[in-house]
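Hi R.,

Here's the chain you asked about this morning:
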Amino acid sequence: MPYFSTLYITAMHQFIKILLAVSAFCCAAHSYEWYESGNFYQIYPRSFMDSDNDGIGDLQGIKSKLQYLKDLGIDGVWLSPIYKSPDADFGYDISDFRDIHSLFGNLGDFDQLIAECNRIGLKLILDFVPNHSSDEHEWFQKSERNISGYEDYYIWRTPQIDEVSNIPVPINNWMSRFRYSAWKWSEIRQQMYYHMFVYQQPDLNYRNPKVVQEMKDVLKFWMDKGVDGFRVDAIRTLFEKMNPDGSFPGEPRSYDPNCDQYDHCSLINICTRDQPETYDMVYQWRNLMDDFATKNKVGSKVLMLESYADVDLNMIYYGNATTPGAHFPFNFELIKNTNINSTAEDFKSAVDLWLDNMPAGHIANWVLGNHDQHRIASRLGVERGDLLNILIQTLPGAAITYQGEELVMTNVHLSWNDTVDPKACNTNDPVNYEKLSRDPARTPFPWDDSKNAGFSKADSTWLPVGDDYKTVNVKAQEAAANSHLKIFKKLTTIRKESMFRFGNYTGILSNNDNVYSYKRQHENEFAVVVLNFGKSQEVVDVSSLFTSIPSKLKVYTSSLESAIADGEIVDASKVTVKGNIGLVLLNSSTMAKVNLILLIFSISFLIL
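And here is the predicted structure, written out as tokens:
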């Protein structure tokens, strides 16, 4: 019997190899890097999964749920900061760039996480926070004491002293992103230091070559650990404009009626963002990462940037053929230019803005949610949840999904007493704090309907779970006949097909600009995506919008409330789409191929 079992297992493994080879043959044979059409998933570690029941998520918790992400169709997992930190800004104030926050575990736990990612075929991306450190970092403590070699690790200036109050006067009018002056007095050094964010986050001085090298060494440390790339935080603020004499000019007022005098938006930030030196630093990091990959004969390391700059400035981050930059700066046009009342034209314009300006040969990317934004469904409409996931998953390039958006989660209301985000707390406004708070999108992930949504067995969690966790959770959506989660999985599956990996894009508005449709085609395979952003039902003549459309199309998937079954045949000349509903349509031959590959992988997983 054992001998027979061994033969059986060997035969099954050979069978699986044949099936997967057939699958690879079915897919177009193109050479591409994993991130070019990659599906990235952002994890906010405090809120993903708690393994030690202290009410805060951790690395072992993440490790225990990696298979969920693999099954979800994710290629790369991006972790918000996990470094050692006193948590003045929940991990973005780093006291040691080479160590793990004790709440999340230790370096051994991180090594296990990397190993598990490698085992199941997931790439791991870390947040890189180069703009600042914590004021508890060894570098700052030495710099504050003027210890030799560290004097200029941060941005120090001697202020004037007010003759009446005898209080130091800020160096200029620059404002922190978290309100009030961006200059903080140090009794120890008898000078002021600059901080773009909370005062516990002093800005590093990138005009000091030692700082530049220190941060390059940080990148190398984590690449040696095996990470597959970095998402760079707050890249726009890396450098500040400086006069030839070393002084800093003030910024002009914006006269924005929505900003008071203590807010950064009361100024036009021409001196504290988007300085020319920033782009060169990105190019240096990319060169370092490419050299590391070549020298160590490992796969390419991906470099992604957080930048809310105008599109023309963001394009500079890509670099050029001789001086490559980021693989892509995050595309926030869909966040910046849309709201709950946005039309199909608004969404198409945001898509076209990026595609029309992106340098040839580079990678587009699409972002609608993250830890700094309110939930997509709350910002843009719950009824549009699936439609927006269809949009993100079927456009050309990479897709970035924030944890929970596959479930179409909504904001969690938090009382003033439960609010912990310094951006909200610094308002000192118990009435309007939620407008600025980032906490509503950072609450614990709902795994099931048990205590604390299955996130933790603790008596309380660092932020409360949502009131709707009994029905909005992974377990419930996996058990349902159809759900947001199942639609998302279908989208990530077809996204691996050639028309979505390599295909061209042709977009068009129709039906009084209520409907945004586009065709993705590669060779003889194509898909048509129909998105009705209007409130009323529309009948769309797909055959007149695009060339070479057969008379009949099959519905691959659609929004949960579409009332259209997957696999249903529709007349291409009159596709009926309810308001706020999206459809993915395939021709019969493409549908047959997709079904074959789905069957192959299903059999493979069953055998394994």
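One quick note: Residues 31 and 308 are 31 Å apart (CA to CA).

Cheers,
M.
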